[in-house]
Amino acid sequence: MNDSVYLKERCPVWMEGAAVCLLDQRALPHKTVILRLARYEETVGAIRQMAVRGAVAIGMTGGYAMAQAALTAPENRFWEVVERARAAIGSARPTAKNLTYAVERVHAALKKAPDVPAARRLALLEAQALYRDDARMTRRIAEVGLPLLPKKKAVLTHCNAGWLACPNWGTALAPIYLAHRKGKSVFVYATETRPRGQGAKLTTWELAQEGVSHALLADTAVGHTMAQGEIGLVIVGADRIAANGDTANKIGTYGLAVLARAHRIPFYVAAPSPTFDAECPSGREIPMEERSGEEVLQVSGLNTKGEETSVRVATAGVTTRNPAFDVTPARLIAGFVTERGIVRPTKAAIRRFLNQARRRSTTPPA
Ligand code: MRU
C-alpha cells in the first residue's frame, strides 16, 4: 500500500517489506503524516505515543510489530528477540484487549514453525490474516448495527470508533457508514472534546471524508441535547469487555451511558469478538490506563497563522488526574453489536457468543 492508498483502503496501518507504516493520528485533522518504522521498538513507541490508537488498530499494529520482529531478528538470536518483542509489544498499552490477542495469535503461529525461515513466513501470514479477519468483522458489525439507527433523531458517538480505530468500517461508525452508503439519512453528534479531543480531531475528520452529516458537540452539552429530544441512539466502541459485560472505553463513555439511561435512549457498544476478555470477570479487573496530566493542562491545535501549537490552559502548578478510560457497567448497555449479531450484556450470552466465535476460528476452511 502506498501513501495515498490508506484512504481508499480505509486502513490506518500496513506493512511494506519489514517496515510498519502508519497514518500518524496525532497530526490529524490538520496534516496527513505517514510514519515508516523500520524496527519493532519504534512500532512499540508509536503505539505508546498514540501515533496509532483505537483498540483494533492497536491490535493490528501489535500483530505487524510481531511480524516485524520476526522478519528482522538475527537468525542466531531469533527466539530470544521474538520473546523480548512479545513482552514489549503486548504491554505497550494496557487497556485494549485486542493488543494481547494479536500478539499472542502471531506468537502462537510462529511457534509452530520447524525453523527460523518458516517462523518469519508464518508470523507475516498470521499478521496479514489478522487484518483480513478484523476487516471482515467490521463489515458484519455494519450490517448488524444498521437496523438500530433511528429514522428521525441523531446518533451520538464518543471518541473515535471509525476506520482510524478499526480498519475498513470501524466499529461504532460502521452502521453509520453503511446507512450513508445505502442513501439513508443519518446525522451524527461526535463527542470527546477533552481530554485528547479525539471526537473533535478524528471522528469529524472521518465523517467529513465520507460526507456524513454531523456536528461536534462539547462533552458538557450532551445532557442538554438529550433532554431536548434530539438523540435517538448512543453507539460507542470498546477497548475491553469483561466476561459479565462491563465495558472499558474512552473516558466519558460511562457518563454518556448514565445520561442515556436517564433519557431512555438506547446505549449500544459495537465491538468484534477479540475485544471481549473471557478471563476478566468484571470491570473491576480491567487494567485502566492513566495518562500524563499534560493532556489536561494543555490544548493543542493550529494558531491563527496555521501553525501547530500547544497552549497551557490551567492554573500554573495545579495537580491533575487523567484517567484515559472508564468502565460502563453492563446494566446500562442495551446490547453489543458484534460480527455474530446483537449479544445481550449477560454472562451467559457473552459466554455463548465467545464459544461460537472460537469454534468458528478453529474450524479448518472447507
Ligand atoms: O486511547 P485510544 O484512542 O486508543 O482509545 C480508543 C477508544 O476508546 C475507542 O473508543 C475504541 O478503541 C473503540 S473502537 C476500536
What does this structure look like?
It is a single chain. The protein is an alpha/beta fold. Helices cover 40% and strands 18% of the residues. The chain folds into 2 domains: 3-139, Up-down Bundle (Four Helix Bundle (Hemerythrin (Met), subunit A)); 142-362, Translation initiation factor eif-2b, domain 2 (Rossmann fold, 3-Layer(aba) Sandwich). It is built from 12 helices and 16 strands. The chain has a 7-stranded mixed sheet with strand order 6-5-4-7-10-15-16, with helices on both faces. The radius of gyration is 20 Å and the shape is globular. Residues 53-56, 159, 161, 165-166, 171, 198, 237-239, 249-250, 324 line the site of 5-S-methyl-1-O-phosphono-5-thio-D-ribulose.
Summarize the structure.
This protein is α/β, with parallel strands linked by helices and 366 residues long. Helix content is 40%, strand content 18%.
What is the secondary structure topology, with strand pairs?
Elements: H1 5-9, E1 13-16, E2 19-23, E3 34-37, H2 40-48, H3 55-72, H4 78-90, H5 97-111, H6 116-145, E4 154-158, H7 174-181, E5 187-191, H8 198-210, E6 213-216, H9 222-227, E7 231-236, E8 240-242, E9 247-250, H10 253-262, E10 267-270, E11 276-277, H11 294-297, E12 298-302, E13 308-312, E14 325-328, E15 335-338, E16 341-343, H12 347-362
Bound molecules: 5-S-methyl-1-O-phosphono-5-thio-D-ribulose.
Describe the strand arrangement of the main beta sheet, using strand numbers: 6-5-4-7-10-15-16
| CATH architecture descriptor of the largest domain | 3-Layer(aba) Sandwich
Mind describing the biggest β-sheet?
7 strands, mixed
Q: How many angstroms separate the termini?
A: 30 Å
Helix-strand makeup class: alpha/beta
Which spans have pLDDT < 50 for at least 5 consecutive residues? none
CATH-defined fold name of the largest domain: Rossmann fold
Rg calculated over all Cα atoms: 20 Å
Kindly provide the name of the CATH class of the largest domain: Alpha Beta
Tell me the number of strands: 16
Helix tally equals 12
Average predicted confidence as pLDDT: 96
Could you give the order of the helices and strands? HEEEHHHHHEHEHEHEEEHEEHEEEEEH
Whole-number count of domains: 2
